[in-house]
Amino acid sequence: MTLINGQHKDRLFKFIFGNPDHKEWTLSLYNALNDTNFTDPEEIEFNTIEEAVYMGMRNDVSFILAFVISIWEHQSSFSLNLPIRLFLYAAHLYEKYITSGKFHRFSRKLQRLPKPKCICFYNGTEDQPEEVILKLSDAFDDNDGDIEVRVKMLNINYGRNRELMEKCRPIEEYSWFVEAVRLKQKDGLSLEKAVDLAIDEMSDDFALKKFLLMNRAEVKGMFLSEYDAEKEMEYLREEIREEIREEAREEGREEGREEGRKEGRAEGRAEGRKEGRNEGINNANERVASDMLKNGEPLEKIKLYSQLAETAIFNLAKTLGISVM
Predict the structure, then answer these.
(1) Helix (H, G, I), strand (E, B) or coil at 318
(2) What is the pTM (predicted TM-score) of this model?
(3) In which residue ranges of the chain is pLDDT below 70?
(4) Rounded to the nearest 10 degrees, how much is the dihedral formed by the CA atoms of 295, 300, 301, 307?
């Protein structure tokens, strides 16, 4: 088995398009995205945030070119929360720009800032449109707020966004490579073998082939890290779903207990009313019998009017110290 260097935790996308040694690939993708024709890769100034603390994630690729800050994020799982992530990344990037001395905070003149362009490159297995605009305001009540962030999500799965692929050969080769690895995994190969075979089968005229061959171990490490991260996220999602199900079950049990308490109270009230009525009737009958005993009425008449049993009448007479006639 080939040993994987555990230090290589970056995404393959960043390894290719955020690589200072291959700015020509970054420039090619930038030109394709912005319909520009820049020719000097050295004009690119990378400012990627390596340790941006937001849910344990790092910024994938960001750089300044022609007074534009490009913020690129690669995603293999679709998320509507991308705008808030890129908003936080942008805040870090502009903070770095301001503290670099290029922005005069105390000047009364308007200070120009590089224009932000936020792009998410999606190549997950879930079917998504070729292009989607995600907005931070979608998360606000009534979709209204004083801060807005727009993120263009581009589907770069192989066969999608053909115009972009034709304009930028490196992104097409990257797309082909990821698809080739997936197909070989579906055929039953392990992830490591799938990566090896996909690299070997790349056309010799692919610009990325030599680079991937030279960094074969690192590339496999990136695939494994991302694969493990996806499994961990799925495990976490299932764990959260189970927690929600248990909470719902407990809510159901509490609702059942409350319904039981309501039914019990209703039954108890009905029984209490019945007992109360009987007790009230008995008390009234005893008062009738008591008055009749004191007036010397005969037993049969007392039984008729009081509706008390003979034994009850005798006990009542004994309590009152009266002889029954």
Answers:
(1) helix
(2) 0.68
(3) 1-10, 51-58, 226-241, 243, 280-281, 302, 324-325
(4) 110
How many Å is the maximal CA-CA distance in the chain? 129
Instruction: Decide if 226 contacts 76 (C-beta within 8 A).
Output: yes
56-65, Cβ contacts within 8 angstroms, sequence gap of 24 or more: 57/85, 59/89, 59/92, 59/93, 60/11, 60/13, 60/14, 60/18, 61/13, 61/14, 61/17, 61/18, 61/26, 62/89, 62/93, 63/18, 63/26, 64/97, 64/114, 65/27, 65/30, 65/38
Q: Do residues 8 and 225 make contact, with C-beta atoms less than 8 angstroms apart?
A: yes
| DSSP 3-state of 211 | helix
> How do residues 40-87 score in pLDDT, each as one tens digit?
999 999 998 876 444 455 678 999 999 999 999 998 888 899 999 999
